[in-house]
């Protein structure tokens, strides 16, 4: 279960960008298999492109390496434990605060993987979730966003051998 914890960073709410999670998650929590998505949903890829266009994206190294290449019109800020890691077009950082500082601007998209979502959860302002109504095998699991409030849902039926899915917007639980 993912539940938002209160931030302990000093001034964490002052002059920081809006932090969006952009993630597709199957009904069983799977978000990845062998460094890839375990489904093919062209509408979800178009949705991802539309909501991340022009934004700095923060991701883990494995997520970066799973991309087909640099995604046009976006910065690729990569959180990695390896201080020597580099890749063309990547902006490596070692921690959440460095990623936020480097990103600048008023909005960033956190795109995965599971460890990166867990690190950013205390700071997340909104989740743009694609619920994939399937239970594929996978090796990367993201727990549900327990306590988060659904503010929007658009359901899409299964078609052409592809599973049904829903675009869902979630907001964090009220502060205690």
Description of the structure:
The protein is an alpha/beta fold and 176 residues long. The chain is built from 4 helices and 10 strands, in the order ββαβαββαβαββββ. It has a single domain (30-157), classed as Dihydrofolate Reductase, subunit A. It has helices at 42-52, 61-66, 96-103, 114-120; strands spanning 18-26, 30-32, 56-60, 75-79, 90-93, 107-112, 126-133, 140-141, 149-156, 164-171. The strands form 2 sheets. It has an 8-stranded mixed beta sheet with strand order 5-4-3-6-1-7-10-9, with helices on both faces. Strands 2-8 form a two-stranded antiparallel sheet. The longest helix is centred in the first third of the chain and has 11 residues, at 42-52. It is globular and about 45 Å long.
Count of extended strands: 10
Number of domains: 1
Q: How would you classify the helix and strand content by structural class?
A: alpha/beta
CATH superfamily, called what? Dihydrofolate Reductase, subunit A
Distance between the termini: 18 Å
Can you tell me the residue ranges where pLDDT is under 50 for at least 5 consecutive residues? 1-13
**CATH class type:** Alpha Beta
The largest sheet is: 8 strands, mixed
Shape: globular
Q: Architecture, CATH level 2?
A: 3-Layer(aba) Sandwich
The amount of helix comes to 10-25%
Within the CATH hierarchy, at the fold level, what is the topology? Dihydrofolate Reductase, subunit A
Order of helices and strands: EEHEHEEHEHEEEE
Beta content comes to 25-35%
Widest β-sheet, arrangement of strands: 5-4-3-6-1-7-10-9
Overall mean pLDDT: 92
How many helices? 4
Radius of gyration: 16 Å
């Amino acid at each position: 279960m993912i539940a938002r914890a209160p931030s302990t960073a000093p001034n964490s709410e002052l002059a920081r960008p809006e932090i969006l999670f952009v993630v597709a998650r199957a009904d069983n929590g799977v978000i990845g298999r062998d460094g890839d998505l375990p489904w093919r949903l062209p509408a979800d890829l178009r949705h991802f492109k539309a909501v991340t266009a022009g934004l700095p994206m923060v991701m883990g190294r494995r997520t970066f390496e799973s991309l087909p290449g640099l995604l046009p019109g976006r910065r690729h800020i990569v959180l990695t434990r390896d201080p020597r890691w580099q890749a063309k077009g990547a902006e490596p950082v070692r921690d959440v605060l460095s990623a936020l500082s480097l990103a600048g601007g008023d909005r960033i998209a956190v795109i995965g993987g599971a460890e990166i979502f867990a690190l950013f959860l205390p700071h997340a302002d909104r989740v743009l979730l694609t619920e994939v109504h399937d239970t594929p095998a996978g090796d990367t699991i993201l727990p549900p966003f327990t306590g988060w409030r659904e503010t929007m849902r658009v359901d899409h039926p299964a078609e052409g051998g592809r599973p049904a899915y829903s675009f869902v917007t979630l907001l964090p639980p009220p502060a205690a």
